[in-house]
User: Fold this.
Amino acid sequence: MTKAVKETFSPDPAGLAAKVRTLAPSLTRSMRRVAEAVATDPAGCAALTVTGLAERTGTSEATVVRTARLLGYPGYRDLRLALAGLAAHQRSGRAPALTTDITVDDPLADVVAKLAHDERQTLADTAAALDTGQLEAAVTAAAAARRIDVYGVGASGLVAQDLAQKLLRIGLVAHAHSDTHLAVTTAVQLSAGDLAIAVTHSGATRDVIEPLRVAFERGATTVALTGRPKSAVTQYADHVLATSTARESELRPAAMSSRTSQLLVVDCLFVGVAQRTYATAAPALAASYEALAHRHR
Amino acid sequence: MTKAVKETFSPDPAGLAAKVRTLAPSLTRSMRRVAEAVATDPAGCAALTVTGLAERTGTSEATVVRTARLLGYPGYRDLRLALAGLAAHQRSGRAPALTTDITVDDPLADVVAKLAHDERQTLADTAAALDTGQLEAAVTAAAAARRIDVYGVGASGLVAQDLAQKLLRIGLVAHAHSDTHLAVTTAVQLSAGDLAIAVTHSGATRDVIEPLRVAFERGATTVALTGRPKSAVTQYADHVLATSTARESELRPAAMSSRTSQLLVVDCLFVGVAQRTYATAAPALAASYEALAHRHR
DNA sequence: CCCGAACAGAAAATAGCTTTCAGACGTGAC
DNA sequence: GTCACGTCTGAAAGCTATTTTCTGTTCGGG
Assistant:
């Protein structure tokens, strides 16, 4: 025989203020004071115990409980839970006006909120704008490639390295190049069946376009990862993966949001390739995980 | 002397699921079951008493209270209030059902949507969980530092490089090290007035802890950027910046989401420093922009 | 002025939360 | 293997918060 479970009955979490107003005339003096306190400052009251609220309203515990009952809850405990929910709801409703730029004198908490908000926006934009057909083509090319070279300089160089690192981990032959000269000299060795990927936000970075052009002319498959789908880099690209460009400002250079966007595309590319090469990718991932384990204490 | 008022301490109403994930590795079996129940069904758990939740998770009241403490609340009562708030929040938020893992045969469009969703979630969690006090301290230290060394290997190495690159661009003396030997040999040169930053998701990467320890012992200010706020690396860190841990799976290794989180923190750190050194940072940013312009066609 | 009804608060009773303690379970050393 | 040690866990005791009960008070009507 199980013990009877007490159900929490939450009649009307949102319209509590309304209910207080409706009921007010039928409430007694003391009860009204409690009801008003609760309606005025749900968050504050949620933090109080029966005794606390009784003190605050200059009444007794019994009155507080009676009021809670009148408002439709089984007891004060449940009113308090509803109050906490209401408070959370109110907090979230307050849109923090995140549309403004980051300024020199924003407090750090605002900086965090604004950056997070902007990056989230960038991700949503990127996902919405990403052409899955092009991605599909790039994934297929990568999964079948004999060898993959990735070009990127500056901030995009890190993205290029990230992609190469990931692909290496699932057993593909991938290299990232940040040095134009080296990139060009290795690009001449590519041919049909190889894949070259250029990462550049502006789409106009010569150091990256150059090796991609060489790879393109040698017959390798080429992919451009860029925020400007009609820029110079795309003329040598078989497939173009578009990244999104967010609002930028003095304290938030373009490099920052483009990176977020580029990395999402890189992740998609990676997962796509891992799916298609699952038979080799899965054990490779597991093995690299194992290998790293003993590097940790 | 007035009676001490017990404050309701609500450390992290939004990112609770994230916190559970972050703390999970350091939790014991029973505690983890409680934490998971709470993260999985906040609304349901909010309706339960200590005893009820203990029964539901097959543990004891003591364990439930202990878990509540670990999650940062003074006791179960307060956790329950936070849960009620969270539940209300969820009801209004209506999250779409993107909660499933990425599988081998997901079409690419789904992969994109799921990855974008997860990364957005990670960003929100990170922002919610980031301790602005610690960030403030790190920013102040960085802005005043004679020299800044950043340590990171593997995926975190790229994050370390990203941070160093950014700080360099606003005229600070910053270097990223991926080579443990080099990192240690440069760390011995640090002293009070210098800053060392370690980036490691697990918090247990020896190659990164070692140089940080050296820097710490030499009297430099030290910062750890980690997803495990109670891990080995933090014992040598003056300030700990917590990154968030997302759900991971076979096709989505931890490295992927930790990177997103780490980069957000890096951006916050960077913008904070740029604000505090605005007089030199602004012209430096403008100058680096100019300098790059002619590298583009 | 007295009576009755409703109200309010004090105090008792209970339910729920927290703390303590001792046994159980691993873990590492010898 | 086994012994010692530290950690984890749940049972029960202890305490706080909530609920109920009960009695004094107030106010309107006879």
Notes: The first helix of chain A runs from residue 16 to 23. Residues 1-12 of chain A have pLDDT under 50 and may be disordered. Residues 49-51, 61-62, 64-65, 75-77 of chain A lie near DNA strand D (CB under 10 Å from a C1'). The two ends of chain A are 49 Å apart (CA to CA).
